[in-house]
Write a structure and sequence with these properties.
The chain has three domains: about 90 residues, Immunoglobulin-like (Sandwich), CATH 2.60.40; about 80 residues, Immunoglobulin-like; about 70 residues, no CATH class. Strands 1-2-4 form a three-stranded antiparallel sheet, with no helix packed on it. The protein has a three-stranded antiparallel sheet with strand order 3-6-7, with no helix packed on it. It has a three-stranded antiparallel sheet with strand order 10-11-14, with no helix packed on it. The protein is about 25% helix and about 30% strand. Bound molecules: protoporphyrin IX containing FE.
Amino acid sequence: MRLTFRLLSVVATISLTLYMSCSSSDEPEPFDCGTSDLAIQLVADNDPTGCGSDDGSIQVSATGGQGPYQFKIGTGAYGSTATFTNLGGGSFNISVKDNRGCEKQLAAVVLTAPSGPVAGTPAIDAQTNCLSPNGSVTANVTGGTPPYQYKLGSGALGSVATFNGLSAGNYVITVEDDAGCSININATVASNTGITYTGEILAIFQAKCQFSGCHPDNGNWFDYNTAKGSAAAIKAHTANGTMPKGGEAAPGGALSADQIMLIACWVDSGAN
Ligand code: HEM
């Protein structure tokens, strides 16, 4: 029993001695980063060349502290590269971390994508000639990076801002500037062709529809209010060729292209 106690106290003494000698002297003091001379510098920044192209870049370097250095951008992870590419416009925070774990952040670096063109009110002329459409739209833009290119709908880009020969309807003009920034401008060409029911349309209906089993049986287009009430259907059926029913074989034959346009002009200008 006495032997066991002596043995235990010897073991305890040895371990205490060991602990005292290990814990107090070998753990290195954590480095006070507040005293670090670590610094980060901006070497170069390149704005993106276009508002749609993420080809901007930022290059930094570091001095002081204890190398090697690691760098990160925004919320990204630290890595060894000091150049960040594929950047669009924006404000970027870049940090450096040295071998001691000290960090420094560069003041925000702003890259500016060329701003796109700004749409002004387009100049629009109504269609006044039914059979030779003469509506027009001129795009008005400022800002961005001239010169500008223009296209109507899915057409090709060109340097002319005015589109002529338009029928009444809704159009989209895309404007692209020299930095590749593009905007869309919506424009509506009104119909002011003066085509009227009594002036042009009734005669067409009388020539092409007024047959037994045709009209007025299936819609009395010889009554203005009835025809006006179905104006949209009349425009649709004549434009897609379902009316006159039977086309060329219809009692009065098919409608000519001009007759189809006149009916469309009548409907577009309010079926007056
Ligand atoms: C310019 C001449 C004509 C116009 C503008 C016209 C227009 C129309 C329209 C808009 C409708 C649909 C009515 C609705 O959904 O309420 C319709 C229906 C109809 N039309 Fe005509 N039509 C024309 C000529 C003819 C002719 C020549 C025939 C006879 C061969 C004909 C036979 C019919 C028939 C049977 C219907 C009932 C629905 C159907 O079977 O498709 N139409 N028409």
